[in-house]
Write a structure and sequence with these properties.
- Its main location: membrane.
- This protein is mostly helical.
- The protein has two domains: 61 residues, no CATH class; 237 residues, Orthogonal Bundle (MetI-like fold).
- It contains 13 helices and two strands.
- Strands 1-2 form a two-stranded antiparallel ribbon.
- The chain starts with a helix and ends in a 7-residue tail after the last helix.
- The C terminus is likely disordered.
């Protein structure tokens, strides 16, 4: 009897060791490439450090909350935060509304819906840099858009060179290039709704609009919440489009300067890594708070109980 218990104990111990060996590569990579740099960045946000310094990170001057305080005194950071907020307010609602409309279209019984699903989704998997270059070609002064507007007697605009038009132009580019992703997610949510609910609503005399308002939208609430959170996070982290369009300087006159672009410039052009880390954690705090607010508004905590 004791030999059996000893054998079982050795087997369980061996299983535990094998289990740890299997997960060890993931644990080590997480600690080295995620948790470790995150802790170091958080410590750096309270220090004054540059790559050009001869001192190590641990020898860098401790400045406390000065980096965080200076960020909110920095006019360029405040402009970048304003631009990013306006960008999010402009892109997120339009993006989600268009995505929902497209999802409803490709979920209907139209002919060639597979083609439309692929066509709407292709911009999502296209390189952001390639999309930005394409839109720079379309939006330039003698580009395709101005040539089209000329047919209606509208004078040409320098879309990316005008302080008033540069940010809205990037918004339009972002909506076009990423709406397909949210369409696919909405489509998955629509296909998860039982058709029996629509049949019951039809028997009760509900028309198409009433079915959409009282059946589709309530049951899409978790999907809409997910898309809203992902879209908001994506817009607050916008970098590629602003960098390519402005050449990395956020111009003209900082009209396309975003928080992440300013973070990049501060850390890798001005070499103020401590200040850049502080900006990164300010952005994290903003996104985290907005996500909690959205979760509270949508009542997401009761959706899966």
């Amino acid at each position: 009897m004791s030999s059996k218990k000893g054998t079982l104990s050795r087997v369980k111990t061996r299983e535990k060791i094998d289990g740890w060996l299997f997960v060890m590569p993931f644990v080590i990579s997480t600690l080295v490439f995620f948790a470790g740099p995150l802790v170091v960045a958080f410590i750096l946000s309270f220090k004054e450090y540059s790559f050009l310094d001869q001192n190590t990170i641990w020898q860098a001057k401790w400045v406390g909350f000065d980096n965080y305080i200076n960020a909110f005194k920095d006019p360029i950071f405040k402009r970048a935060l304003l631009n990013t907020t306006l960008y999010s307010l402009g892109v997120v609602p339009i993006q989600l509304v268009i995505a929902l409309i497209l999802a409803l279209i490709v979920d209907s019984d139209i002919k060639g819906k597979t083609f439309f699903r692929v066509a709407y989704y292709i911009p999502t998997v296209t390189s952001t840099v390639a999309v930005s270059v394409m839109f720079m070609f379309i939006f330039k002064t003698d580009g395709l858009l101005n040539k089209f507007l000329k047919l209606f007697g509208i004078p040409p605009y320098n879309w990316f060179g005008d302080v008033r038009l540069a940010l809205p132009s990037i918004m339009g580019m972002a909506i076009w290039s990423s709406v397909g992703l949210y369409m696919i997610i909405f489509l998955a949510g629509l296909q998860d709704i039982p058709h029996s609910l629509y049949e019951a609503a039809w028997i009760d005399g509900a028309n198409k609009w009433q079915q959409f308002w009282y059946v589709t939208l309530p049951l899409l609430r978790p999907t809409f919440f997910f898309n809203l959170v992902v879209s908001l996070i994506g817009t607050f982290q916008v970098f590629d489009q602003a960098y390519v369009v402005s050449g990395g300087n956020g111009g003209p006159l900082n009209s396309t300067m975003t928080v992440v672009l300013y973070l990049y410039r501060t850390g890798f052009r001005d070499f103020k890594m401590g200040y850049a880390c502080a900006i990164a954690f300010i952005l994290f705090a903003i996104i985290f708070i907005l996500t909690l607010i959205q979760k509270k508004l949508f009542g997401e905590e009761t959706q899966y109980q």
